[in-house]
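Subgroup meeting minutes
Present: P.N., E.W., G.H.
Scribe: E.W.

1. P.N. recapped why we're keeping a running log of single-chain structure predictions: easier to compare across weeks, and new members can see raw inputs and outputs side by side.
2. G.H. added today's entry (260 aa).
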Amino acid sequence: MFHFENGMLYVEDVTVETLAKEVGTPFYAYSSKVLTKNYKDFATAMGKFKNTICYSIKANSNLGVVKTLASLGSGADVVSAGEMFVAMKAGIPANKIVFSGVGKTPAELEAAIKNQILQINAESEAEIDTINEIAMKLGMKGNLAIRVNPDVDAKTHVKITTGKKENKFGVEWDEAKALYKKASQMEGINVVGIAMHIGSQLLDLEPFRLAFTKMAEMVSELEAEGIILQNLDVGGGLGINYNVELPPQKTLTLKLLKIL
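Output recorded in log:
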């Protein structure tokens, strides 16, 4: 949607020069048509699966961008209370918001619990204990998912891989089941899901297959223990074309969800 005509740069059907005269410089220009197309492509690829596509607010928290996605039915993945409030201000309901990331403060967790967001993705036993304590003080329950580290090599750049055992993210695979049992018995916890994110800029489908298969096995093991999960948070960023990369097609990648 960004293109040149007769030496003029256009954003959709409007020249950048026209925009500059109207809003002044410097400014950022985004194409709602591109945002809409990409979201709908992804939603279509999900097909028959019951799902909530959660836009990562940290990618771009511009209110216009988030409002555009909210109008299409998008949820939000946030890593701070500030991002959570941006999402809600843009029109994304709390029950479509996932709070991910490390280093959540007690105040942020309290805000998430008070707003009864879809789920808080806990990264450790200590965080689960904190969520429980805060929720009990509020006389509420926090919706909890545990981010589990599947120890899968995403075959992406070492600086953006997050799913290997040596990475700092998530609960170790062998410890996860015990933590689920503990959390399920806590008064302030409502265990709703399991989360996984193996990295960004993934160009190979096999790591998804390995990670999703392990997640499915974990879900089955938990069900056998009487712990029934409502939400499967399957993370990992599909690659894009920077230079000569060949990203996997979204429709092909999302067929892997049938494993679950």
